[in-house]
Amino acid sequence: MKFNLRAPISTVVAMAVGLIVLAGYFIQLPLLTSLRRIFLQWGVILAASALVVGVVNLLSVHWRKVSTQQKGGVYSAVLLVSFAITLVVAGYSGPTGGGTMWIFRYVQIPIESSLMAILAVALAYAIARLLRRRTDAFSIVFAITVLAALLGLAPILGVEIPGLHGPDGLRDLLARIPALAGARGILLGVALGAIATALRVLMGADRPYGG
Amino acid sequence: MGGSTTLGLAFVLLFFVLMVAFMVTGRRESGRHLREIRAFQCIGRSIGLAVESGKRLHVSLGRGSVASSTSAPGLVGLSVLERIARATSMSDRPLIATSGDSGLAILSQDALKSAYREVGALDQYLATSGRLSGLTPFSYAAGALPVMYDEESSLNIFLGNFGAEAALMIDASERGGGITLAGSDSLPAQAVIYAAAHEPLIGEEMFAAGAYVQAGPAHLASLRAQDVLRWALVGGILAGAALKLLGVI
């Protein structure tokens, strides 16, 4: 029988480091605070190293797609060539050099802006689809609220609609009372869920590190 | 230690005590009833169908860095990923996990590997099954789209920290005819998910995922602790409002 020694060791290390960082946040002892700072610095260094591993993973996924001639392999080839060009340009001119900034300004920003434009269309389509798929009271309230929020953003063709625009209009009322109350309620639930998740990791019940 | 720090520490300790108490008492209870959430009922059905029809499953873990305050939803996603990897280990097409953070991508590979190892199906594991699809919000979304379009995944699960870019991924999933289950901790993403996803998870529902996919007794215990503390918070808020109204505070 093979005994996996890595699992208990990694679990103990993760729990100990987690507890020290948490304790260092709440209890202001010099030893705890400095240990906490050191562990957080290590975390930042590890995250930076993970970035290199992540990029290698990204390249290997796309290289595999190109070499095995999978569907969409052309786009993977474009990604690999673009990566090589960007690496050469950024390596030569530096991260804030002219060439790098040109790529950023004239390639990356336009592409991401186009995706953002598509996003607006995707969202409008999603609301139409929602009403077709789930025609219940919640969906109708959601659609009406979205409509009121959009129309109430600014005067329509320069004309303010009474009751919709302005500081006492429907849009302002929706944003100030029900939307804010709902958002706070959701955020409280999310915060409780986040604490529960963190405690499970600290207790070793959840082991996202494969231990 | 300041007043708010003490209160914070007391809250975390109380949460911990409640979780341990519910874990101990939960062992003696059999089959605790969980509220029905359509999205989680759908997961089991869709996994079975996907395995039977030889279709792929895709889990997207968002772009919350593991070293930041947005890591919790990604960790929930990893628990679900591990459970689904075990359940689909007999599938012809291995599960794919995409993420927008390199740390999360490495953890997804680790979760897949340990899940396959535990069920004795390590040959199913491919390093390319846990992928970093992009590092900016839109490059992450753009990188995840081919998994839904080209690799024809029939169930797409989005559990993690997303922004509005989730709409593009969910749209791709729905157009591809797949079932979409999505949850996030961010408010803009939740609005988008409510409108676009087939099975949305709102608020803390996402954090209950582990309990619904039977990831262990700690998940059930934490869910019960959350319920108790939620009611305590509701009581505190209402009491505070009443005292304010009466001019006491």
Question: How is the topology of this model organized?
Answer:
The complex is a heterodimer of chains A (211) and B (249).
Chain A: H1 6-26, H2 30-67, H3 73-93, H4 98-133, H5 137-151, H6 170-176, H7 178-202
Helix pairs in contact in A: 1-2, 2-3, 3-4, 5-6, 6-7
Chain B: H1 3-28, H2 38-53, E1 56-62, H3 71-87, E2 96-99, H4 102-118, E3 130-132, H5 137-149, E4 153-161, H6 166-175, E5 179-184, H7 187-196, E6 199-201, H8 209-212, H9 217-245
Parallel strand pairs in B: 1-2, 1-4, 2-3, 4-5, 5-6
Helix pairs in contact in B: 1-9, 3-4, 5-6, 6-7
User: Which segments of chain B are poorly predicted (pLDDT under 50) over 5 or more consecutive residues?
Assistant: none
Oligomer: heterodimer
Beta-strand percentage range of chain B: 5-15%
Order of helical and strand elements of chain B? HHEHEHEHEHEHEHH
How many beta-strand segments of chain A? 0
Number of domains of chain B: 1
Q: Largest beta sheet of chain A, briefly? A: none
- The percent range for helix content of chain B is 55-70%
**How many E-type strands of chain B?**
6
Protein structure class of chain A: mainly alpha
- CA-atom Rg of chain B in angstroms: 20 Å
Strand order of the largest sheet of chain B: 3-2-1-4-5-6
Give the CA-CA distance, first to last residue of chain A. 18 Å
Shape assignment of chain B: globular
| Strand percentage of chain A | under 5%
Shape of chain A: extended
Question: What average pLDDT do the residues of chain A reach?
Answer: 88
Termini gap of chain B:
24 Å
* Averaged pLDDT of chain B: 89
